[in-house]
């Protein structure tokens, strides 16, 4: 199929979502369809992430979040998990210099207590070295689960109540939001899932209360600029009422 020519003039007519989140599905199936091991799909998929961050920034997206490894992904084979964490380490180290160059602010969300000291050290360096950057904010979810995040947030709030720093009557949605991994990050306007599945798989459960969900059959290694723009075009056709009536 011939690629659509998306001119700069046309892109200026689109309402660009402020925050786009992506469930990057299909890496393993894509690789298996080519007669390659599943890990090959993850390697190519990590390269696509690198490209998408630049593309998202060029389109005017302010926040870009990817689901890299869920709390449920530990159920996969030991070999696949080992390769994934090797790729995380290599990718995050590269991201330090690249983010400085491209003015990207990076944050890792998820339960980092299960990550090894070496990876946590890389994460700390990445977040600290990019915290003052003013361009796109890039969030990577590693060992992340929406239910786990909410549970951890509730424990933090309860700890403050127990210490007397917060009363039960003071607990509001905003208070809980401020204890989530995504504190100070706007909720996703658009959630994209690649690979043909139509579920959110425990991703950003609290934050996606009013997100628009876009599902496409394209596996993540084949996802490109045109696919992202197609998702934005679809988003532009949605009537976002947030429970109200227009």
Could you describe the 3D structure shown?
It is a single chain. The chain is built from eight helices and six strands; from the N terminus they run αβααβαβαβααββα. By secondary structure, it is of the alpha/beta class. The protein has one domain (17-145, 188-236): Undecaprenyl pyrophosphate synthetase, CATH 3.40.1180. A six-stranded parallel sheet has the order 3-4-2-1-5-6, sandwiched between helices. α3 (38-59) runs parallel beside α4 and α4 runs parallel beside α5 (117-130). The longest helix is centred in the middle third of the chain and has 25 residues, at 78-102. The termini are far apart. The model has no long low-confidence stretch (mean pLDDT 94).
Question: What are the defining features of this structure?
Answer:
alpha/beta, Undecaprenyl pyrophosphate synthetase, 246 residues, 8 helices
Strand content: 5-15%
Principal-axis shape equals: globular
CATH structural architecture: 3-Layer(aba) Sandwich
CATH class: Alpha Beta
End-to-end Cα distance, whole Å, is: 38 Å
Determine the structural class based on helices, strands and strand pairing: alpha/beta
Largest sheet: 6 strands, parallel
Q: How would you write the strand order of the largest sheet?
A: 3-4-2-1-5-6
Mean pLDDT: 94
Cα Rg: 19 Å
CATH topology: Undecaprenyl pyrophosphate synthetase
What's the number of structural domains? 1
E-strand count: 6
Low confidence ranges: none
Number of helices: 8
Helix content: 40-55%
CATH H-tier superfamily:
Decaprenyl diphosphate synthase-like
Question: What's the SSE pattern?
Answer: HEHHEHEHEHHEEH
């Amino acid at each position: 199929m011939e690629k659509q020519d998306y001119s700069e003039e046309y892109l200026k007519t689109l309402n660009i979502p402020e925050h786009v989140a992506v469930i990057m599905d299909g890496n393993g199936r894509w690789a298996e369809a080519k007669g390659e091991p599943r890990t090959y799909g993850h390697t190519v998929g990590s390269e696509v992430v690198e490209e998408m961050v630049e593309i998202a920034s060029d389109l005017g997206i302010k926040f870009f979040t990817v689901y890299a490894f869920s709390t449920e992904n530990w159920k996969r084979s030991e070999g696949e998990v080992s390769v994934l964490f090797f790729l995380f380490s290599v990718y995050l180290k590269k991201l330090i210099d690249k983010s400085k160059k491209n003015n990207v602010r990076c944050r890792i969300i998820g339960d980092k207590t299960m990550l090894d000291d070496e990876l946590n050290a890389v994460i700390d360096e990445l977040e600290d070295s990019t915290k003052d950057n003013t361009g796109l904010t890039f969030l990577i979810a590693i060992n992340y689960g929406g239910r786990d995040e909410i549970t951890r947030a509730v424990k933090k709030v309860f700890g403050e109540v127990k210490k007397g720093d917060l009363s039960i009557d003071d607990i509001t949605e905003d208070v809980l939001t401020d204890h989530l991994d995504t504190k100070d990050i706007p909720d996703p306007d658009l959630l994209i899932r690649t690979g043909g599945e139509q579920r959110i798989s425990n991703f950003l459960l609290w934050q996606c209360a009013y997100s628009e969900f876009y599902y496409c059959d394209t596996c993540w290694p084949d996802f490109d600029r045109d696919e992202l723009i197609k998702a934005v075009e679809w988003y532009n056709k949605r009537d976002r009422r947030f429970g109200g009536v227009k």
